[in-house]
């Protein structure tokens, strides 16, 4: 049986990891990538950059599925803008889960999110749309991660914690059980979030992390 095609939006570093997970997942064949004008015609891990954002309407006529493959560190805005643009053009935005990740049958992961190698989403956890759960991250039981978040490599969101929309949780950071991280916050690498923090909080990377 032939696989359905998927278009990856982004052709930078994060796209490399996305390609690897999509290929491992095996449900979709990568039709190509969308990147900058300077990248058109290039090949990324054997997949051609077919066009730019301006070409999405034409590409939609050929490909039904899409994934945002742009990373998120300093700001969520590019990923959110692309995700909304894909919805306007009528793309289906599937959840992509590495076969080397674990998502509980009692958890929920929203459209367009990617669960990367070694990540764990435990029972009654809820992950929103257009999220990155990066390699070896943990979303523990009953935790909530809202839309457009990036939980980085090795980061821990413990039981019953709530990460608001559009947050970045840096590599190796840990959010204590029951704590709330306010919308739009940036939690630096190695931070330990031991108490709730307001929307827009900025916790810097831990020295030496």
Please provide a written account of the structure.
This protein has 209 residues and is of the alpha/beta class. It has helices at 13-25, 56-60, 77-88; strands at residues 4-9, 28-34, 43-44, 47-51, 65-68, 96-97, 102-103, 108-109, 114-115, 120-121, 126-127, 132-133, 138-139, 144-145, 150-151, 156-157, 162-163, 168-169, 174-175, 180-181, 186-187, 192-193, 202-203. It contains 3 helices and 23 strands. The chain has 2 domains: 4-88, Rossmann fold; 95-197, UDP N-Acetylglucosamine Acyltransferase, domain 1. The chain has a 7-stranded parallel beta sheet with strand order 6-9-12-15-18-21-23, with helices on one face. The radius of gyration is 17 Å and the shape is globular. Helix content is 14%, strand content 29%.
Number of domains: 2
Number of helices: 3
How much of the sequence lies in strands comes to 25-35%
Spatial separation of the terminal alpha carbons: 47 Å
Summarize the topology.
Elements: E1 4-9, H1 13-25, E2 28-34, E3 43-44, E4 47-51, H2 56-60, E5 65-68, H3 77-88, E6 96-97, E7 102-103, E8 108-109, E9 114-115, E10 120-121, E11 126-127, E12 132-133, E13 138-139, E14 144-145, E15 150-151, E16 156-157, E17 162-163, E18 168-169, E19 174-175, E20 180-181, E21 186-187, E22 192-193, E23 202-203
């Amino acid at each position: 049986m032939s696989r359905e095609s998927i278009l990856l939006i982004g052709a930078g570093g994060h796209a490399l990891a996305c390609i690897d997970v999509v290929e491992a997942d095996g449900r979709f064949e990568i039709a190509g990538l969308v990147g900058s004008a300077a990248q058109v015609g290039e090949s990324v891990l054997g997949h051609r950059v077919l066009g730019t954002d301006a070409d999405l309407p034409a590409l939609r006529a050929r490909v039904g599925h899409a994934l945002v493959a742009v990373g998120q560190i300093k700001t969520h805005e590019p990923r959110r803008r692309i995700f909304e643009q894909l919805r306007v053009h009528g793309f289906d935005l599937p959840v992509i889960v590495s076969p080397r990740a674990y998502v509980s049958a009692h958890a929920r992961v929203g459209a367009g999110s990617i669960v990367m190698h070694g990540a764990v989403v435990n029972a009654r956890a809820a992950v929103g749309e257009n999220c990155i759960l990066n390699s070896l991250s943990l979303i523990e039981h009953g935790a909530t991660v809202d839309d457009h978040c990036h939980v980085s490599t090795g980061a821990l969101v413990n039981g019953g914690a709530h990460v608001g929309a559009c947050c970045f949780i840096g590599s190796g950071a840990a959010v204590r059980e029951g704590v709330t991280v306010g919308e739009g916050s940036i939690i630096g690498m190695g931070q330990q979030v031991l108490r709730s923090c307001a929307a827009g909080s900025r916790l810097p990377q831990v020295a030496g992390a």
